[in-house]
Amino acid sequence: MYAPTARTTASRSRDRMSYDRDAAHAVLDEAYHCVLGFVVDGAPRLLPTLHVRVDDVLYLHGSTGSRPLLAARGDAGLPVCVSVTLLDGLVYARSQFHHSANYRSVVVHGTAHLVTGDDDKRAALTALVEKVGAGRAADSRPPSRRELAETAVLALPLREVSVRSRTGGVGDEPADLELPHWAGVVPLRLTAGAPEPADGVVAPVPPYLPVPGPVA
Amino acid sequence: MYAPTARTTASRSRDRMSYDRDAAHAVLDEAYHCVLGFVVDGAPRLLPTLHVRVDDVLYLHGSTGSRPLLAARGDAGLPVCVSVTLLDGLVYARSQFHHSANYRSVVVHGTAHLVTGDDDKRAALTALVEKVGAGRAADSRPPSRRELAETAVLALPLREVSVRSRTGGVGDEPADLELPHWAGVVPLRLTAGAPEPADGVVAPVPPYLPVPGPVA
Questions:
Q1: How far is Cα B37 from Cα B39, in angstroms, rounded to an integer?
Q2: Which of A76, A139, A141, A146 is CA-nearest to residue A118?
Q3: Which of A44, A143, A203 sits opposite B182 (nearest CB)?
Q4: Which residues of chain A, if any, have pLDDT below 50?
Q5: Is B140 close to A201, i.e. CB distance below 8 A?
Q6: What interface predicted TM-score (ipTM) does this complex get?
Q7: Angle B45-A45-B108 (CA atoms, 0-180°, nearest 5)?
Q8: Mutation target among B13, B46, B61, B209 for the A interface, most CBs of A within 10 A
Q9: Does residue B188 lie within any of the structural domains?
Q10: Element (H, E) at B128
Q11: Model confidence over B118-146: pLDDT tens digits?
Q12: pLDDT for residue B25 is more than 80
């Protein structure tokens, strides 16, 4: 369990909140992309990016020229908020008020630091590559010294973490159950299509690619 | 075209940026959910939520108890940043450095205000319901006075808007093209499953539900 804090405690819908470590890790691991939030001149900035979790650290991919990564270069690091959302379905209630969505989301608060050591950076980049296919790191060319220098990775310790989710069916009021409107859930899943090889590729489709069909 | 500003101008990868109004609208309309970013006590906060675009206004769904919506109650409104991302594929290059993702994302900066008038709020909620099925608003019970009071909607004018996207295939270095590794793209799509009716529903599946298969 992650310890709740003031900013990870919901002001409402507390029944949808959790601080369970395994549940948070599962959402972070299933999602390919996240949103990185930070503050510039007092105003919020958002940057979609790719992430990978290794134990209790979230690594965020970036480039050395991007603003948040430059800001995270200092010893103080960069105060950030990272959000990951998996949309699981659309909920059609008989009442418009109870229309909703099924989802699993994680929000992480903390201070991100730039990964500086080459070995640490290589390890994080390997994890990012392994995330899209377990075994891909050994089946691709590792970064050159120049490529490594051109890539930036942020590390965010997973300490202040909350999970919010909605699952299940329609939550209509009892008085509405006799209304004639259709009610139910349309499930949604991120789904992989057939791999599309680049021109000139002769290697067979590797076994570590996502299989066509629902991801995770 | 939206006019670029300092904070919607990329510090790098400018070739992936656009300010095209139709492209931005298409991404906002296809995505069911977004992330709302705002600042509390100098630190970033993120809140995943549902949105709908009506002309050049983005409406964000919330509840009257939530922090950002309370903050947006004042005349000054709430400085926000909203991000929407559609993940279109995973890009496997021969080099780890050129691994990437295909995506379309929109970032909106601006000041959000709480929608206060009952008629305006009803119109925004109707648009939110219509987004999950054109015709659903007429085929569901409208909000009661109490339900309307319990729902909050933020309005964010679409003025400072950028689109970032990556499409297409692998961008390997010429020197890497002879490497033996598989390279290509695994396309990803959000896909609807078969509708799951709630207990007791006798109405047939309405024609406005997303058809099983890729969404949009």
A1: 7
A2: A146
A3: A203
A4: none
A5: no
A6: 0.94
A7: 105
A8: B46
A9: no
A10: helix B118-131
A11: 999 999 999 999 999 999 999 999 999 99
A12: yes
Domain span holding position B137: 6-166
Find chain A residues with C-beta within 8 A of B134's C-beta.
Answer: none
Written as six digits, the tokens of A130 are 């392994």
Query: What local confidence, expressed as pLDDT, does residue A141 receive?
Result: 98
What CA–CA distance (Å, rounded) separates B79 from B77? 7
Picking from B61, B78, B12, B13, the residue whose alpha carbon sits closest to that of residue A44 is B78
> Residue B161 corresponds to which tokens in the numbers above?
């808007």
The helix/strand/coil state of B84 is: strand
Residues, chain B, total? 216
More confident residue, B63 or B214: B214
- In chain B, residues with a C-beta closer than 8 Å to the C-beta of A189 are 190-191, 193
Which amino acid does the sequence have at A9?
T
pLDDT of residue A14: 72
Asked whether residue A205 is domain-assigned, the answer is: no
Long-range CB contacts (< 8 A, 24+ apart) of A76-79? A76/A111, A77/A111, A77/A112, A77/A113, A78/A38, A78/A111, A78/A112, A78/A113, A78/A154, A79/A38, A79/A39, A79/A110, A79/A111, A79/A112, A79/B42, A79/B43, A79/B44
How buried is B147 (Cβ within 10 angstroms: 0-12 exposed, 13-18 middle, 19+ buried)? Answer: middle
> Is there a contact between A21 and A163 (Cβ–Cβ < 8 Å)?
no
C-alpha torsion angle, residues B142, B147, B151, B153 (rounded to 10): 30
d(C-alpha A99, C-alpha B137), whole Å? 11
For residue A69, the one-letter residue type is: L
Token code pair at residue A5: 């804090």
Residue A210 within a domain: no
On whether residue A193 sits in a domain, the answer given is no
Residues near A77 by beta carbon (within 8 Å), at least 6 away in sequence: A111, A112, A113
* Residue B109's CATH number: 2.30.110.10
Total count of domains within chain B: 1
Q: Which of B140, B163, B166 to mutate to test the interface with A (most CBs of A within 10 A)?
A: B140
* pLDDT score at A64: 59
